[in-house]
Amino acid sequence: MIGSVIKAIEVMQAFTSSNPVFSLAELTRILPYPKTTIYTLLQTLESKGFVEKYENGKYSLGTAIIPLTQAVRINVQLRDRAAPLLRILSDYCHESVYLAIKDGDQCLYIYAIESSDRLLARSAIGEVGPMYCSSIGKAILSFMPENEVNSIIENEVLVKYTDNTITDPVVLRKELAEGRQKGFCLDNSEHEHDVYCIGAPIFNEHAEPIAACSISGTDVEMLSSKLVKFSAVLRYTAQEISRRMGFIPSRETMIWRDATNPFL
User: Are 214 and 139 in contact (CB under 8 A)?
Assistant: First the structure.
């Protein structure tokens, strides 16, 4: 653990709804650190907007806190609205199902239903992974603005995790274009050996790709004989999650219920 980070967090945690403003002397009395240490931490936090200093020399939490709390609220809202649909999807396909959000240039997994066949006996929740070699990441990339996609591809080292990992930017851009056209992307054992995935994007009310969900498993047939069926139910699930987040699909892109499909 990094001590200075813990101290900075404890400084911010000192501010509460009942005690929102403190002087340096007051913080020194309630925190177990020297006055100079607390002052340095306050200066650092103030420079990033996490702490605000008044003319009378007292401090309060700054406005930089607000976007973080908003992001947490949205992520919890997304998870809670997506979970029932993802459980239905998992029961239908009998494979692992994941939900991830865009976190900078990577994917952050915020919900998972793990299959008993998963190679690694661990939960993916809280894990961060690359976007360019996972179906869930490529699904988000496929619908992002071109300039943002180019920035990620050009600035990130495309590590070759397996023999199938795409590290050629030209090939990757072509696959993303195909994903945008089809509405889903594939991971042909590109991030983990012998793991195959299908991912579909989730949009917010502004039609921005904020997340994606995926079906993942060790059965290579997911990408061949089962692809039509699995991609259809996955896209429908992603669409319904998007609708619950305020997205209104156009009539041309709407995925309609199919009476012949037990999931839909």
Answer: yes
DSSP state, residue 133: T
Q: What is the pLDDT confidence band of residue 77, given thresholds at 50, 70 and 90? A: confident
Q: Which H or E run includes 187?
A: strand 185-188
Q: Tell me the C-alpha distance between 197 and 212, whole Å.
A: 12
CA dist., res. 139 & res. 189, Å (int) = 16
- CA-nearest of 130, 140, 127, 201 to 167 is 130
| Interval 190-211: pLDDT, tens | 999 999 999 999 999 999 999 9
Cβ pair 63, 52 in contact under 8 A: yes
DSSP string, 37-102: HHHHHHHHHHHTTSEEE-TTS-EEE-TTHHHHHHHHHHHHHHHHHHHHHHHHHHHHH-SEEEEEEE
Closest alpha carbon to 242 in 210, 194, 217, 196:
210
Question: 103: part of which helix (H) or strand (E)?
Answer: strand 96-103
Tokens of 189: 């054992």
Residue 117 has what pLDDT? 60
